[in-house]
Amino acid sequence: MPKPNDNQLQMIFEDMVIARTQAGRLWNLQRQGQIGTIAPIDGHEATIVGAVHALETESDWVLPQYREPLGLRRYGPEILDAFMLYNLGHPLGGHIPDPIKVVPSQISLAASIPHAVGLAWGMSLKNDPGAVLVFFGDGASSEGDFYEAGNLAGVLKAPVIFLCVNNQWAISTPTSLQTAADSFASKSSAFGIPGVQVDGNDPSLVFEAVSEARERAVNGKGPTLIESTVYRLGAHTTADDPTRYVPSEELSAAKKRDPLLSLQKELKKRNLWSDEKQNEVEKYALERMDEALEKAKNTPLQPSSVLDHCFETETLRLSKQRKYLLESLGGAHE
Ligand SMILES: Cc1ncc(C[n+]2csc(CCOP(=O)(O)OP(=O)(O)O)c2C)c(N)n1
Ligand SMILES: [Mg+2]
Question: Average pLDDT, stretch 82-104?
Fold first, then answer.
């Protein structure tokens, strides 16, 4: 499979820098009480951005867990706008406009994996082109949903890519307590599909692995399980204190393999990146985030919109709940 060319690599690095810069700003906004809980992307950028750059945005769907949104910029600037609304308490579903093929983040672990398989199966039944990529963590892989969906996808040869981001932690649970298997990729053998392990700190390797999985998917050869190994450089979320359980020597070793540092070094050596470019991109990232935050602050909260987008036609039970909600709000909101 081809590696990303120089231009693609520059774009990948740009998206990685934007994600890291915006993540830092989000952390501060949460600490200032301006937004809700967030899960930092730090350490996951090469995997998320590398994977997304191997997809065809017009035909391929992405289902993020909750750590991915800042890395999905390639799918459109609207993703950040939707994410900022979500961070201010708006339901995410209604804000990712058509035709962007990104499904709202899933906080309930592994719950998006059966959705991804259903979506992929539906696409193959309708002869739609494209593939579906679903992100989930090492922790999410312990859920029944993962095994059920993986099994069905193998039988149906659904065009789906299972991307397990092994960041070595599920909050404070290390992978040694998560599974007794040799690897997360090896779980693919029970589904009868290929399992691949990749160094998730190198976006070129992730790009290559996802390109290959995509090729299989769109050619009717079925799903692939990719385990992309990274290290969670930050806290689990803004509600976590990792100094209580992450061994400091392990964290300092991981910081030396920070995916941004190694790629920046390589690109600079090849004259594909400079300090000026770095400053310019960081400045853009912050301005873009301020703009998205401002837009979100100026959007009135509509509590009943949490009931939108559940079904194509609203069910009787939902209609009753909507009526009850609107009545209890005393008509103050829609
Ligand atoms: C079904 C379910 N069980 C438990 C939780 C609580 N929870 C939130 S995040 C998390 C850890 C997830 O770890 P992993 O899947 O490895 O993702 P990471 O946060 O490391 O990116 C847990 C247990 C949840 N959100 N959903
Ligand atoms: Mg994890």
Answer: 88
